[in-house]
Amino acid sequence: MNLTHPFRDADGDKLREECGVFGVIGAKDAANVAAAGLHSLQHRGQEAVGITSYDGSEFYSHRGLGHVAQVFSQKELDALPGMMASGHVRYSTTGGSGLRNVQPLFADLASGGFAIAHNGNISNAMALKRDLVAKGSIFQSTSDTETIIHLVATSRYPTLLDRFIDALRMVEGAYSLICMTPEGMIACRDPLGIRPLVMGRLGDAIVFASETVALDVIGAEFTRAVEPGELVQVDHKGTISSHRPFGTPSPRPCIFEHVYFSRPDSVMDGRSVYGVRKQIGVELAKEAPAPADLVIPVPDSGVPAAIGYAQESGIPFELGIIRSHYVGRTFIQPGEQARHNDVKRKHNANRALVEGKKIILIDDSIVRGTTSLKIVEMMRDAGAAEVHMRIASPPTEHSCFYGVDTPERSKLLAANMDIEAMAAFIKADSLAFVSIDGLYRAVGEAKRNSKCPQFCDACFSGDYPTKLTDFTERQPPKLNAA
Prior knowledge:
Elements: E1 16-17, E2 19-25, H1 30-40, E3 48-54, E4 59-65, H2 68-71, H3 74-78, E5 84-90, E6 105-109, E7 112-122, H4 125-134, H5 145-154, H6 160-169, E8 173-181, E9 184-189, E10 198-202, E11 205-209, H7 212-218, E12 221-225, E13 231-235, E14 240-243, H8 256-261, E15 267-268, E16 271-272, H9 273-287, E17 294-297, H10 303-313, E18 321-323, H11 336-346, E19 347-349, H12 351-354, E20 358-363, H13 370-381, E21 386-391, E22 404-405, H14 413-416, H15 419-426, E23 430-433, H16 436-442, H17 458-461, H18 469-474
Parallel strand pairs: 17-20, 20-21, 21-23
Antiparallel strand pairs: 1-22, 2-5, 2-11, 3-4, 3-5, 6-7, 7-8, 8-9, 9-13, 10-11, 10-12, 13-14, 15-16, 18-19
């Protein structure tokens, strides 16, 4: 969500979703509902949070750095009156953690107030900003989301909806958006549906959220997913209208939502996230068996896949690593050694269980490999006889440009080493990843359709479904061989 889109690794081996969005219209004390919904989406962004409300005449906003519970007490929520509210939780990229980038972003347009919350990344934001600044636009943040506001403001179409559609036609990349205007709320997804967005009902109120778990937490009933390329417009009377201005391209939702980003108690595209993760473990056990005494998850994200692996292999599942939930995120600590010490404080080997055992460690991904190395070393220090690493996703060989905080490709372990070399790097006796077809089988497909993939899997395949204008412009020209 930062225009320069620099990449930063968070915990060494975890890709980070940069944000989650929530919106409600037609609810008494809408800001309180939004805060509860955002709390359930806290896993999607833990660095900053904001809520904007509308009481029929004025917009009110409060934003801050930290978790929902840290930023919003009842006092702050009481200062956000009205029956319509939207909110946003986010991770920032380097240089983008300032308060000016915390969403929802708000602007007074000629048609009135306009608030926008965005999950995703605009891959031509720098090019758009350059053109807008040349024409006189003045940017107040470094967020790619602000380009949408300026495109709406400068569009010459007569209605706000038409100006909004005109703006979206000019952007590339991924977006789930929740926008508020004096007329009501607009929720939409990019034409490929890369980033998720669902719709529900809470009494007479209409609710939008990044995941179904947010609906569960506030007691709302799931209605349906917002379709790829769809704009859902809701006025203050509760009238819902659907618009599909982008045609019907084949959807490409992010497959990593199933692997890691979404909460396991969410439902994505009609499938239980927890069920899919267990099935990934089943596929992994079929594809990459190992002689071992125990199957041990790397908590917490490796647990469902480890259960599936254990059930399929017949090898007992045990909690051989105990995680402390009271340690801050490791990237906060300055210096590599401090981050490594935090890995040890966050995870501790269950020595009485693993000593003398051959173990299979299950994790969701390997990014740089640093955390995997520390965990393998921890298990060896605890006396494990053999350590076999199994990963519940294919090798992450490519960077994401669609709203996921990913290291640049030169820092991705799988982009620079084959699997044997990676195993040696993390000091495992063996290493294997689920195949991309195995991953597709786990989400209910027969296999990956290479001609028209059913999901966005660019971080594994390098098959990016949209243009990457800003990234392409940053690449140095290739020199012809002499």
